[in-house]
Amino acid sequence: MNTYGTLFRITTFGESHGPSIGVVVDGCPAGLPVDEVFIQQELARRKPGQSKITTQRKEDDAFKILSGVFEGKTTGMPIALVIENQDQRSKDYSHVENVFRPSHADYTYEAKYGHRDHRGGGRSSARETAARVAAGAIAKLFLRSYGVTIQAFVSQVGDIKAAHYTTLDLSKTEDNIVRCPDATVADKMIELIDAVRLDRDTIGGLVTCVIKNTPVGLGEPVFDKLHAELGKAMLSINAVKGFEYGSGFEGITLRGSEHNDLFYTEEGQVRTKTNFSGGVQGGISNGEDIYFNVAFKPVATIMQDQETVDKDNNPAVVSGKGRHDPCVVPRAVPIVEAMAALVIADFVLRTRTSKL
Amino acid sequence: MNTYGTLFRITTFGESHGPSIGVVVDGCPAGLPVDEVFIQQELARRKPGQSKITTQRKEDDAFKILSGVFEGKTTGMPIALVIENQDQRSKDYSHVENVFRPSHADYTYEAKYGHRDHRGGGRSSARETAARVAAGAIAKLFLRSYGVTIQAFVSQVGDIKAAHYTTLDLSKTEDNIVRCPDATVADKMIELIDAVRLDRDTIGGLVTCVIKNTPVGLGEPVFDKLHAELGKAMLSINAVKGFEYGSGFEGITLRGSEHNDLFYTEEGQVRTKTNFSGGVQGGISNGEDIYFNVAFKPVATIMQDQETVDKDNNPAVVSGKGRHDPCVVPRAVPIVEAMAALVIADFVLRTRTSKL
Amino acid sequence: MNTYGTLFRITTFGESHGPSIGVVVDGCPAGLPVDEVFIQQELARRKPGQSKITTQRKEDDAFKILSGVFEGKTTGMPIALVIENQDQRSKDYSHVENVFRPSHADYTYEAKYGHRDHRGGGRSSARETAARVAAGAIAKLFLRSYGVTIQAFVSQVGDIKAAHYTTLDLSKTEDNIVRCPDATVADKMIELIDAVRLDRDTIGGLVTCVIKNTPVGLGEPVFDKLHAELGKAMLSINAVKGFEYGSGFEGITLRGSEHNDLFYTEEGQVRTKTNFSGGVQGGISNGEDIYFNVAFKPVATIMQDQETVDKDNNPAVVSGKGRHDPCVVPRAVPIVEAMAALVIADFVLRTRTSKL
Amino acid sequence: MNTYGTLFRITTFGESHGPSIGVVVDGCPAGLPVDEVFIQQELARRKPGQSKITTQRKEDDAFKILSGVFEGKTTGMPIALVIENQDQRSKDYSHVENVFRPSHADYTYEAKYGHRDHRGGGRSSARETAARVAAGAIAKLFLRSYGVTIQAFVSQVGDIKAAHYTTLDLSKTEDNIVRCPDATVADKMIELIDAVRLDRDTIGGLVTCVIKNTPVGLGEPVFDKLHAELGKAMLSINAVKGFEYGSGFEGITLRGSEHNDLFYTEEGQVRTKTNFSGGVQGGISNGEDIYFNVAFKPVATIMQDQETVDKDNNPAVVSGKGRHDPCVVPRAVPIVEAMAALVIADFVLRTRTSKL
């Protein structure tokens, strides 16, 4: 459904072309200073129209906090936050009211619910993720007091790949519009996206996320393992097709003698010499960097004619109209960070209960 | 924690070397005939000692149902099912009571809980998955009435890969001990595992799972998307490092015009010409095959000396003793199926509420 | 926390003197016509200033739906509904910023959260219940299709009691401002409330609720029994001190031979001759009327000086200012109905899963 | 369903005449010494056959811990605890296989689930509460470290009432078989129960529960108020018809000026002069005694002929056979305590998250 998290919990609402979208953040501890400028900055990283390689829909994504904050600090009460939709152009969607766009959610929503808001994908639109980013910003503010940092970046567009995160300066992620801190490939990524756009087509990509300074002990086995929750959170983002952490799919071909992370001690802290575990062992954080990859498919809306069917099962042809992203990953970076922040914040709270 | 599922819900318990492990299945609808022979067969597919390429621990995994079944049928009440541990050799673990085995959960459990059962990994042992397989067998029985079938198989060991599932006869999965229906590679996989075992080492692998005949409409966006729950369920299995569905990570390099699944109509049913979507669109099943891959790391226990530290932060050396799998994927096949069955059964129940 | 319900689920937010309050209704099945006039009518039954025996705060309680409704019908997506606060007079509360009002939540919120919105009780204000009434109105619309009716009324004010519900015409509840369908006592109740108000004091009361035409089978033992959920829902309403259903506390003095409800058959339907069970047996509805009583304490805010302490543990004196109800039950009637509707709607959905 | 609690969570299973009943306790913090003698003592207080005024069914209620405890202390893992059924006499129930016993759960279970274990009431039997008592004993052990004490007692049988708890020495509760610490009425209660039993009838009663030394701050408004959860927990116990806390139903007739609990300071601690609030204000504990009453109906099984219907809607006559309690409250005392302990333990854990 539309609620995520156990103790640090969000409920999102809103459709792409309704009056507004929003989120209720419940369970955020009281006493947290709420830096509204920071929340707005996070929303700006996700908002449409921010560069030539994103959709040109214009949304300020100005938000309003309706509850849960008093004199600049959280009260422990639910924080409701609303963002108005401003630049809907619903008539761009009148041609798909009765036609199912390929690889969109049109058909499955119609089949499941029987009645749906078709405009701009309605609830299935990635516009919903703005609410996640706002909530994630609050989670980030909470995690600041623990020293946790969460940094995502674009690590692949099409077949152009960035270097491994350990060789990059992640503070440079925002230095270019594709959000890739590897300067040697960022321009090529941008060129590729631009070329794809001119082809009236779209392309997939990869986002890598790195979480540093997590406390040891986050994760609740056997089902709510840290990486299992991260996986679910990432897979719940629009267009995501895969998740791997640590050695991930490459671990398949390794031997145990290569893959095991040997323990040693550094300044009284247990550490590992390598980190194929991705900072998670037995579903619980071990204090090393948590890192994972999130695969995004090419955006389904392309500016080309495609065969499909309509509600009455008749053949039809549909082509994208309106304003769309040729590649989703540059704007997905803050969304990945937001969901990661929500998962980590939830486990930080849950972990307070593991011992007497 | 140790409960999974919303309406079809399981709670597992038990440690590797305690008196028994078990599961409570809650929410299974009343009136379902419980085929105990089938449950035992499923457990036999997972049990240790079943072939030369698995651990030689001997467990019958005979189960006993304590509740919830009357005159051979479910009553809608919680079904408790217990499996005794028989072949514990706890003294095989006395050497690791105070030493953290590399890439195991020893250190993180110690740090999180402060007090743990170290014998055989305690709760973090894959022995817990027997309870999942038993519960999954009940879910499979429930899904039979819907015609849903769930078939997993080993699709890769080390760098030896099977062909794509659409070209294989999945009914042949149980024809060999590695559970790979691609006869052209199964023997090579077995040889590789055997070679690795003789090297006192371990190797990773991949399990592919295919779900056929699912009703259209399973999945509860925006957070409980069908593939997001499948991902969490798979990532909660021991040793799993990655999950992808449909086109997965390969989708990164594709263009939208290649990747989109065009709709057409067949016998009054909306179908797609290709299935890069993996049977899930917008987080909801569309009636096509659901298929996904689950990456397993090489088993952490190797029969070689490895450097590590002990509880007091002193350097130590540890080597595997006892009986262990050189490669986890042959026995992981029924576990993957079980978790998939539990996810699908839960959504089948949840979907009953989506319309008036 | 601030979410209630399993499948038909609400999340409320907002403080008494913040910009607005609201609710997100998640899980309401798609295809339900949303009668906004009806929702407004329900809110009008709860709103302040509706008669001389309620608080004189003026709130239109005009609501706005932000999501989840398209072309007048639900889409299965979360329904966000916001009500602006208009007539806050926060300065009426400046005298209690640092002083704990007796029998209010001031002290416990301060102790638990450390930082709170003191204005008008903040989140602990009964203003929050407007959001429940709006959500309950949607639940009532859903239950209409099942023929379920939910009718609450004031059955006692101070020591003035109405007759048993089975002897009353519940359609007359709205005929007087105290919402008591027993015309023989309604005027006396109004007089008592008015007299108490002139005494600058407050008085307690009782609300009885009757639910007719519920399907047989609602309730999920052993913990989520129908009456247990009703009890929790009622006890979660501000100022409630007790809940009883069927024979309730009077059942203590009865013998089994008097209290048992004998079964008989009427038009092919199993019925009971008496209804001490209150329509619930073993935690599951049996098709008879469900009825229960909800006890409300006297409102804590009185227009008299009372001894108390301040944040610094110094003695203080506090007196009510602003606009308050001398007796809460007339306005509590729609709140009780709303919570009952939410519980019943949730169980209607949950019950769809009990059989194959 | 069959799971209760958010962080300190239990799942019970088992039927009256199945092989065993049991419970899984999940979320109990690690490091807690498990006093098995104490658990057995608690079970002994609830077990049948303990005195002449209880059922003569003979059950030792010996329990076995299957998991979650290592070297005498909890590990943070799920604690499974099983109790064998020994003295089932299922043939005592063959006469009600197809007949619905009045005011039992036979009819509603049949209608809801379609297939049920009729023997001894199956899952709806109060035998299930043994599992709750065992789990509650673990919760009590956890609460010991906080100094919290939970004491219930029989405060009324039929119309014989004990004095108010504040005038009684609750350590005397176990001094008599009816568990009433008021020596002036305990014998009368026993006589009444015995007389009722000789009449082949049953009688209702009241249990009062007092919780002392709770930390300030327990409870999670607006829905999970402390008293609301206590109410649900109590109402989930078999035969309970009502719940009230603090002033309860008597608060209806009081005025605010009488009912408000004035604050003062004692040794630096905020206290209230009276305690009509029952230790809970705004849904959160304030440090005063928490006290509440739980009303139990007369046991439905009476040794008299009663009219009813059978599965085929034919008229029938049924009379109690087997061994039953003439009054449930003496054995209900430890059950009420157990559920209270589980609620308080859960909130103790939840409260760890309310502030930064």
From TrEMBL, chains A, B, C, D:
CDD domains: Chorismate_synthase (cd07304). It comes from the Bacteria. GO terms for cellular component: cytosol. Its EC number is 4.2.3.5. FMN binds at residues 123-125, 238-239, 282, 297-301, 323. Reduced FMN (FMNH(2)). It catalyses: 5-O-(1-carboxyvinyl)-3-phosphoshikimate = chorismate + phosphate. GO terms for molecular function: chorismate synthase activity; FMN binding. One of its GO terms (biological process) is aromatic amino acid family biosynthetic process. Its cofactor is FMNH2. Pfam families: Chorismate_synt. NADP(+) binds at residues 46, 52. InterPro entries: Chorismate_synth (IPR000453), Chorismate_synth_AroC_sf (IPR035904), Chorismate_synthase_CS (IPR020541). SUPFAM superfamilies: Chorismate synthase, AroC. Keywords: Amino-acid biosynthesis, Aromatic amino acid biosynthesis, FAD, Flavoprotein, FMN, Lyase, NADP. Pathway: Metabolic intermediate biosynthesis; chorismate biosynthesis; chorismate from D-erythrose 4-phosphate and phosphoenolpyruvate: step 7/7. Belongs to the chorismate synthase family. This reaction introduces a second double bond into the aromatic ring system. Homotetramer. This is Chorismate synthase. It comes from Chryseotalea sanaruensis.
